[in-house]
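pasting for the record
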Amino acid sequence: MVRFLIRALIAALGLWLAAALIPGVSYSGVGSLIVAAVLLGIVNAFVRPVVFVLTLPLTVVTLGLFLLVVNAAMIGLVALLLGGFTVDGFVPGVLAAIVTGAVSWVGHLVLGLGKR
């Protein structure tokens, strides 16, 4: 449970940075940002694996670049489900996926969450 909360805080930091850097990504308050991060974690745990398997041939053909589209779709799904978090289009979604992924990678590297 503690690992999930740490991951959610890292995701919230990534979403906050994405909203600060990318026009078209916004949130209404800190509470909605935290809820968006938790919801993103839940969506990534349950929906993303199904979408990943369904799009695996396209991911192989594009040498993994289609995973950016999958990640953008997960962020867009969170924006659809949550009223206080918005993503205005495909390009802001992909850019938000890149920023959130980079922040998540650095956060996990610094905190050593990848090790068991």
